[in-house]
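seq:
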Amino acid sequence: MNPEPFLNLDRVIHEKGRLAIMSLLAATPELSFTELRDTLNMTDGNVTTHIRTLQEAGYISVAKSYQNNRPHTACTLTPAGRKAFTAYINLLEEIIQQTRPK
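struct:
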């Protein structure tokens, strides 16, 4: 087995909470902070930390606004985030192919 693919896994995405956020955003154009939190059953602090890490990496964009006089935070994948997520999934597929019997 070639260990190279494992060494190339994107550490920002690879953490399970961030992987879940990226997966949800890849399947849905935009999700609110509340939707992410509730769907993933995470605490506010946990979601905030993961969002910040993904935003700093340039993988998601965050838009803050008000709806019905309440704060609203919306998250979307950036083009760089979509590209990084696709590369991550392709690398996982490569790893899986290496482990399948021939």
